Amino acid sequence: MNKRVPLLINGQFVDSKSAQTLPVINPATQGVLAEVPFATPDEVEQAIQGAAEAFKTWRNVPVPERARLMLRYQALLKEHHDELAEILAEDNGKTFEDAKGDVWRGIEVVEHACNVPSLLMGETVENVANGVDTYSNVQSLGVCVGITPFNFPAMIPLWMFPLAVACGNTFVLKPSEQVPLTAVRLLELFKEAGCPDGVVQMVHGGKDQVDQLLTSPVTKAISFVGSVPVGEHIYRTGTHHLKRVQCFAGAKNHMVVMPDADKNTVVNNLVGASVGAAGQRCMAISVAVFVGDSINWVDELKEKLAKVQPGYWNDASAGYGPLVSKAATDRVKAYIAKGIEEGATCLLDGRDCTVEGYPDGNWVGPTIFTDVTTDMTIYKEEIFGPVLVCMHAKTLGEAIELINACPFGNGTSIFTKSGAAARRYQHEIEVGQVGINIPIPVPLPFFSFTGWKASFMGDLHAYGKQAVRFYTETKTITARWPVDEAAGDQPNMTIALK
């Protein structure tokens, strides 16, 4: 009998009373790893109310103590790094090296949270008026919620709850129902690090459970990463119920290749950035824009891509793993068929990919298209698979115009030896995260993850200083302590400070 994934309610891992479950499938074998229950309304409410009760005391825990919790937690995450990566690889399908990278990028955010005392400093101006000082304090919000996707089972939960908790909030995590096992282990280690009961809760489920979290009068802030349709629903519903909401959604990331770039560097970086993690990452390069004569490098790119083979997570020779589900596989294959139908040239077709020993895996091989136009479906929509679309621009200006017309603005990059071209690109491009000779420019956690346009809904981004602002509220105090009591014997009939 397969194990049931537990909920975390008020410090205890408990079995849900729900009869509604979903199998957790190994995407390389179709074997059932566990059953994830969809929490009952009462269980979701217990998690919310438990977090609200824990907030009453957690908000008053001294900031250095919260930082020490994060120090202990990051040490435990490092100690169990490879164990977490193995759980993640079985759960999600990533290769072991890719899974380790997923865990490590999450650890980096926890390390950033260790610095929370300096991040929570307010501001002071002395003597703004006669004997009057003004200063601001940064205070916690209350119960925060995180709704995380399947593609980064460690990194994205770790984007959210450590910083929220370090800022003095409590948290309810709703991990992807497709890959819940990594989140369970993350929270086991957080408890081991000394997290008090109730500070972090975990429930599982789908739309009904999410809607309950969004509409509860108790929850204050919602963080989400996932697809555009779900992100739009969460943003509209959350803001309608007066929540603070940040939603990271779809992408269509372009890499511009200038003719002066180093060809081998470009080809190697494009291969990894387009099909790594089976293309299932919101910062994957899905469109390569070759400027001028660099279009002649496409044949070599095709040859290099053809050598990349997917495989099981513990196969050191595998370039990437399976797609997360049969539905995702069918969706990607349908996009490939649509591209061919609409007139694009498919130089490399990965639909018939097989992996020896794993006949039931969700395999799609590297796929590359040329002769693509902006009205084609494979250009307009996010494929989220190992599919690269190649386009041609005569000039850098034409490439910039093409990319700025795209509704998404998550990430982009340019490969060039020209400082002038790079400077122009980073200044004119309407995309939130720009790489110069770096294909996937995900910033380290002391900056923030700054997607633009349809890739992000909200005002304050994930991790970095913006996340601290998202998870806190600023209180401004204006004070006078008069030395001479007579100074207050006349009424002030205006709002001016004197």
Word description of this protein:
This protein is α/β, with parallel strands linked by helices. The protein folds into two domains: 7-250 and 451-477, Aldehyde Dehydrogenase, Chain A, domain 1, CATH 3.40.605; 253-407 and 411-436, Aldehyde Dehydrogenase, Chain A, domain 2. The protein is built from 16 helices and 22 strands. The strands form six sheets. A seven-stranded mixed β-sheet has the order 14-15-16-13-12-18-19, sandwiched between helices. α10 (263-275) links the parallel β12 (253-257) and β13 (285-291). The radius of gyration is 25 Å and the shape is globular. The N and C termini lie far apart (75 Å). The model has no long low-confidence stretch (mean pLDDT 96).
Write the layout of secondary structure elements.
Elements: E1 7-9, E2 12-14, E3 21-25, E4 32-37, H1 41-58, H2 63-79, H3 81-92, H4 96-113, H5 116-119, E5 124-129, E6 132-140, E7 143-147, H6 155-166, E8 170-174, H7 181-192, E9 200-202, H8 207-215, E10 219-225, H9 228-240, E11 244-248, E12 253-257, H10 263-275, E13 285-291, H11 298-306, H12 326-341, E14 345-348, E15 367-370, H13 377-380, E16 387-393, H14 396-404, E17 408-409, E18 411-415, H15 419-428, E19 433-436, E20 452-453, E21 456-457, H16 464-470, E22 472-480
Parallel strand pairs: 7-8, 7-10, 8-9, 10-11, 12-13, 12-18, 13-16, 15-16, 18-19
Antiparallel strand pairs: 1-2, 3-4, 5-6, 6-22, 11-21, 14-15, 17-20
Helix pairs in contact: 2-4, 3-4, 3-7, 4-6, 10-11
CATH architecture of the largest domain: 3-Layer(aba) Sandwich
- Indicate how many domains the architecture comprises: 2
Strand neighbour order, sheet with most strands? 14-15-16-13-12-18-19
Helix/strand class: alpha/beta
The best one-word shape is: globular
Name the CATH superfamily assignment of the largest domain: Aldehyde Dehydrogenase, Chain A, domain 1
CA(first)-CA(last) distance: 75 Å
CATH level 1 class label of the largest domain: Alpha Beta
- Average pLDDT over all residues: 96
Pfam family, one: Aldedh
GO molecular function: methylmalonate-semialdehyde dehydrogenase (acylating, NAD) activity
Family: Belongs to the aldehyde dehydrogenase family.
Keywords: NAD, Oxidoreductase
